[in-house]
Amino acid sequence: MIEKIIQRQNDNGGQFWSRTDGDIHAPFGFSTIDTLSVLGEIGYSITDNSQIADAIDFIFSYQTPEGCFKYSPKSSKLPCLTARIIAGFGRLGVKNDTRIERSYKWMLDTQWDDGGWRCKTVKLGKSPLTDASNPGTTLYVLDAFRFRDNSMEDLNKLNKGVDFLLQHWEIRQPIGPCNFGIGSTFMKIEYPFLRYNLFYYVYVLSFYDATKNDKRFQDAYNQLKDKVKDNKLIPENPHRAWKEFDFAKKGLISEIGTRRWFEIKKNIKK
């Protein structure tokens, strides 16, 4: 499987699934950032292929001195991308790297008062709810931090992010500059983990003890459980970039996705 993905590393015109203009974020789904994350998600690591190690070094060339990442030489500093990159590195087994720790510290320093994370954009003329953290970005950040040995002080900060996401389960309205909401699309099982959706939401939050006895999390978990058939995870809304792969075919059992479902069940029993 990895050979098929590696062979497509020039599909977007640049090296390591980037575009000709150096953009590592587009096209969404099969960009440099997404592809490395999916490779880690389906079980590959930095030691499995030299191309993966080289691609990781390539992404590090986009890191700023303070620790965040840009997706192109002229792009803004976006916490969503930094979090997705660090989460992807975690999946690939990248450890004991001071450059990653700089990113973790940058994310902690950029947490907003409502407990979540977001870019600084506020869309004028929109609802006041746009001037809130982004649930999707916050989910990415919490995903990234589950690979780190967090201090109690840092964990307390992260738990504020957990509560922010649990509050979103209650209000469900589109909030934040990118208008992340909980509607019919969110409730469809999506795999691999790329976008804000029920499966990804429950999976990440299951790693945080603060959710264990929370009725909001239990409700989300039960709604996901109702969609799992005989303990088998079946994608309902896979991203089109990966739909040809067995782990992401709509309506068919995803063996790797099923492993994540069992991880959730294990986490909530701890």
Describe this structure in words.
This protein starts with a helix and ends with a helix. It has 10 helices and no strands. The chain is mainly alpha-helical and 270 residues long. Helix 8 crosses helix 10 (255-269). The model has no long low-confidence stretch (mean pLDDT 94). Residues 34-168 form the Squalene cyclase C-terminal domain. InterPro entries: SQ_cyclase_C, Terpenoid_cyclase/PrenylTrfase. This is Terpene cyclase/mutase family protein.
Tally of helical runs: 10
Strand content: under 5%
Helix content: 40-55%
Number of domains: 3
What class would the helix/strand composition place it in? mainly alpha
Name the average pLDDT. 94
In total, the number of strands is 0
- Terminal Cα separation, in Å? 33 Å
Radius of gyration: 18 Å
Largest sheet: none
The ordered string of helix (H) and strand (E) elements is HHHHHHHHHH
Which outline best applies?
A: globular
**In terms of per-residue confidence, which ranges show pLDDT below 50 for 5 or more consecutive residues?**
none
